[in-house]
Specification:
2 domains, alpha/beta, 5-stranded mixed beta sheet, Ribosomal Protein L25, Chain P, elongated, Alpha/beta knot, about 240 residues, 6-stranded parallel beta sheet
Length: about 240
């Protein structure tokens, strides 16, 4: 982890924290930190800065923190993602979080297996673990919002039009004739389908909302590859 993410319950006074578990183990075994060393830290939802190691006990470390900097600016993208396989979703959420996406809608589509919606990974605790890993990687502190939308048509007809107001709305589609634009200066709503892509009915419904279909070229990429490629290209 490139940043030790802190939470209010870690603080024993206004500036000192006591850490146990995964974070303490990482500090000692990966950073190999010693008393007096400084590490990057940040408070969830707030500022980032430095933590000075004050004490090392069995399975526990104490730190003095100084939080003086703002976290990185968010990526101006709302991501609408057809729910992928659970193992893929873990990687996608971590990557999107580390790239600065702050709102992800997980939606249904014709090619999304029904069993995916019953995965224990969709439990809030499991998703939160992946969000934390993404923030630690990117030295960020602002937790993204994950919203589950298991019904495609009601979401597209009732909710999506409001989400995309004031944004450039794009849907990734391998058959699209238009090439994905680069360095878009406006806010973006980006829709990415499941493995195999959205079916034509779904593309048509998104087009009715105002989405433009775009392509990355002749190669068809997996979700975990196309998502960061599109985000890097667009924003």
């Amino acid at each position: 982890m490139n940043l030790i993410l802190l939470f209010p319950e870690d603080f024993i006074d206004s500036t000192r924290v006591q850490l146990t578990g995964r974070r303490a183990e990482h500090i000692l075994r990966v950073h190999r930190a010693k008393v007096g060393d400084m590490l990057a830290v940040g408070i969830s939802g707030g500022m980032i800065g430095k933590g000075t190691l004050l004490s090392i006990e069995k399975g526990s470390v104490g730190m003095e923190t100084s939080l003086t900097q703002k976290p990185p600016a968010p990526l101006p993208v709302s991501l609408v993602l057809a729910l992928p396989r659970p193992k893929v979703l873990r990687r996608v959420i971590q990557t999107a979080t580390s790239m600065g996406v702050k709102r992800i809608y997980l939606i249904n589509a014709y090619r999304v297996e029904k069993s995916y919606w019953r995965s224990p990974f969709l439990d809030g605790t499991s998703i939160r673990e992946q969000l934390i890993l993404g923030l630690e990687q990117a030295c960020d502190t602002i937790m993204p919002e994950i919203l589950l939308r298991p019904l495609f048509k009601p979401f597209v007809e009732d909710e999506l039009p409001g989400i995309m107001i004031g944004t450039v709305a794009l849907v990734a589609h391998p058959a699209a004739e238009r090439e994905c634009p680069r360095n878009v200066s406006e806010n973006i709503t980006l829709a990415i389908g499941p493995e195999g892509g959205f079916i034509q009915y779904e593309i048509d419904r998104l087009a009715d909302c105002g989405f433009q279909a775009v392509s990355m070229g002749v190669r068809i990429l997996r979700v975990e590859a196309v998502m960061p490629s599109l985000l890097s290209r667009l924003a």
